[in-house]
Amino acid sequence: xxxxxxxxxxxxxxxxxxxxxxxxxxxxxxxxxxxxxxxxxxxxxxxxxxxxxxxxxxxxxxxxxxxxxxxxxxxxxxxxxxxxxxxxxxxxxxxxxxxxxxxxxxxxxxx
Amino acid sequence: xxxxxxxxxxxxxxxxxxxxxxxxxxxxxxxxxxxxxxxxxxxxxxxxxxxxxxxxxxxxxxxxxxxxxxxxxxxxxxxxxxxxxxxxxxxxxxxxxxxxxxxxxxxxxxxxxxxxxxx
Lengths: 111, 119
Description:
The complex is a heterodimer. By secondary structure, chain A is mostly beta strands. In chain A, the strands form two sheets. A five-stranded antiparallel β-sheet of chain A has the order 1-3-8-7-6, with no helix packed on it. Chain A has a five-stranded mixed β-sheet with strand order 2-10-9-4-5, with no helix packed on it. Chain A is globular, with a radius of gyration of 13 Å. The N and C termini of chain A lie far apart (42 Å). In chain B, the strands form three sheets. In chain B, strands 2, 4, 5, 6, 9, 12 and 13 form a seven-stranded mixed β-sheet that branches. A four-stranded antiparallel β-sheet of chain B has the order 1-3-8-7, with no helix packed on it. In chain B, strands 10-11 form a two-stranded antiparallel ribbon. At the A-B interface, strand 4, strand 5 and strand 9 of A face strand 4, strand 5, strand 11 and strand 12 of B.
């Protein structure tokens, strides 16, 4: 079955530093979604990637989908305290219309 | 008002008690889901439903049951709660649709969560 690893589990950065989280699958994906969960909140959809090699940007956030559609990354440039939270990838193999999630990367940003 | 509403938001109960967590949505989505969140384990799928007549087990359905009373309502029951069911539970809805080679696409909309503590 599909195995998904999300790394790192936790990262602590100083405000202004960059941050990257990676999601790696053992199988080829149809698409992948990314969610953010603020402390005490619920997951909120950020983006969906469907094409091989796709790169999408949302202000300081850059999302990439690997050429082989087995991995994805989320990069935040110049982190701010508002970026604090846990980032989840949700890979989809396309064989079932249910979404499973990676274990998440918790980001802490300090001044 | 929230599009996906969960009740109760917090509940403390004792081992062996029956607990029901309720979810209602105003988004008009057919697909509804129950997830469980534990620290370090991410979100794990308990049950999901594509419509009133279609209910499916997720990764961790043992010890749980669900009922889809209407398109807008999806409830999760713990028939006899045990301490390791202490967790944060999320209901979600989706407008997932088949995108051909892109697979199923569409985002999940989550409720605010129900924190359950089993003593």
